[in-house]
Amino acid sequence: MSNIEQDTSRYREIVRGKIKQNLRRYMTDGQLIGRQGKDLVRIPVPQVDLPRFVFGKPGSGGVGQGPGQPGDVLGPAQPGDGEGEAGDTPGQHILEAEISIDELVQMLAEELELPRIKPKGKRNIQSDVTRYTDIRKVGPESLRHFKRTYREALKRQIMAGEYDPERPVIIPVREDRRYRSFETKPAPESNAVIIYMMDVSGSMGEREKRLVRMTAFWIDAWLKSNYRNVHRRYIVHDAAAAEVDEATFYHLHQSGGTKISSALNVCEQLIQTHYSPNDWNIYLFQFSDGDNFASDNDRALDIIQHALLPAANLYCYGQVDQRHYSDSFLEVLADLGEVENLVMTRIPGDDAIYDAIKVFLGKGK
């Protein structure tokens, strides 16, 4: 490996280390979502310099060989250090490191110790399967097609008048050799769908929606790393529910009462119509501030317990509230007890997103 390649490798390892050290902070940086490219994200990290020797100017002071005295400067004075007139030298800058989303998700998985997901169903999502379906004149000897090579040698000898039926010896030459060639074709693999549900009543403000959006970004990134393609559907509700597109999901603001069961009912119909549990890996994420019409709680629990939990790999409820009242929907869900594919957590602020992702995805369902 050349010195440049070694330095580049070391540099990338240093940058990865810096990102991992500050991953919790980056996860709550809303600007990160806006810095996505097609396959890359830009993450601001402190400027990183590879260690190297720097030679000072003659007569610039400092300690070289020989004894020094306490207080002696160990290097040349830097322009702009301390007080004085305005300088003309650049200062420290923030470096934006470009890394792939896959790398970022891998760091997230390592830090949160997320297990790999074991999918179910084998129908619509595509993975690549290699099949040897073609013959070529070049290739590795391990893929030589002996019958085709023999046939080409036989044809050549017959055409050249070299074939003797009394002594049928076929000797292939280089031009006769034929080799198997492969092509990659898509093959059905596991399906996955994420259905997001969110309360958009008057009590859900911009702060709450921002928490939902950042949490959903990391959920999407992790599930996409486990599945080739992922369907995403969005449901909003106050006292009534409807399916919407992604932009509407994060920006719609309504008022009125709250009936969580209305969103759960639309979700149930969506699964019955489009996503058979036999063929799809179903992930349900519901977000609310926890305030629900009291008489609706029993209806909501009935749908979750008897329709959604039996169908879903995972049902996750995130309560994005800053209050600590005892009659929230989080406490209502707790009445279902310990259920393997039911996960609940509070997300009162940015700092809770890191822990919420670990709670939601830590089961590897």
Q: What can you see in these coordinates?
A:
This protein has helices spanning 3-21, 23-27, 30-34, 101-112, 146-159, 206-226, 246-251, 260-274, 297-308, 329-333, 352-361, and strands spanning 40-46, 94-100, 125-136, 179-189, 191-199, 231-237, 241-244, 280-288, 314-319, 342-346. With 365 residues, the chain is an alpha/beta fold. It has three domains: 1-50 and 94-113, no CATH class; 126-186, no CATH class; 190-361, von Willebrand factor, type A domain (Rossmann fold), CATH 3.40.50.410. It has a six-stranded mixed β-sheet with strand order 7-6-5-8-9-10. A two-stranded antiparallel ribbon has the order 1-2. Strand 8 (280-288), helix 9 and strand 9 form a beta-alpha-beta unit.
Give a topology summary:
Elements: H1 3-21, H2 23-27, H3 30-34, E1 40-46, E2 94-100, H4 101-112, E3 125-136, H5 146-159, E4 179-189, E5 191-199, H6 206-226, E6 231-237, E7 241-244, H7 246-251, H8 260-274, E8 280-288, H9 297-308, E9 314-319, H10 329-333, E10 342-346, H11 352-361
Parallel strand pairs: 5-6, 5-8, 8-9, 9-10
Antiparallel strand pairs: 1-2, 3-4, 6-7
Helix pairs in contact: 4-6, 6-11, 8-9
The computed structural class is: alpha/beta
Oligomer: single chain
Strand content: 15-25%
| CATH architecture identity of the largest domain | 3-Layer(aba) Sandwich
**Total of domains:** 3
Within the largest sheet, what's the order of strands? 7-6-5-8-9-10
| CATH homologous superfamily assignment of the largest domain | von Willebrand factor, type A domain
Dominant shape: elongated
Largest sheet: 6 strands, mixed
Q: How helical, in percent, are the residues? A: 25-40%
Please write the string of helix (H) and strand (E) elements: HHHEEHEHEEHEEHHEHEHEH
- CATH overall fold name of the largest domain: Rossmann fold
Radius of gyration over C-alpha positions, nearest whole angstrom: 31 Å
Q: Which CATH C-level class of the largest domain is it?
A: Alpha Beta
